[in-house]
Hints:
Layout: E1 8-13, H1 16-29, E2 35-39, H2 46-57, E3 71-75, E4 81-86, H3 93-97, H4 101-107, E5 108-113, E6 126-133, E7 139-146, H5 148-162
Parallel strand pairs: 2-5, 2-6, 4-5
Antiparallel strand pairs: 1-7, 3-4, 6-7
Helix pairs in contact: 1-2, 1-5
Amino acid sequence: MPILDAHTVEFFSKSPEQTRRIGIRLGKALKAGDVICLQGELGAGKTTFVQGVAQGWGSLDAVSSPTFILVNQYRRADDEKIFHLDTYRLASQPEAEELDLDAMLAEGILLIEWPERLGALIPAERLWIKLDHLAEEHRQMNFNASGKRADELLNEIRNSIFGGG
């Protein structure tokens, strides 16, 4: 289990179920204002991971990839919200600015697929997760925390994967 530094964890998932379970553990820890960035090519497991996050968080809504509508919103019984963004189809920075990430963050949690397309609009405090397709069901997951809250979330992941705490 390589821990590359205090703000980074690398994990190898052997199945979609394992990827989803890590998402569930993270979802249980999320609260309004949290930003999760999911980087990875098509088929890398981003939606599978988000399904786990939404399940662990307690979503009343089914998860689907928001590729064609940019933003899906998931609700919980207590009226909390997750905003699931897929910025793959954004054409420009002005188009990205129209999404109004600040308004979404004030209301809930942000899960952003293809975050690299947002450039400087991405909040500085975030947990960045890079998923790489290694083999049919195997994925490499690199978690990198920026900021105190993201470090707390990273510790949740570290403890759920490797035990302790």
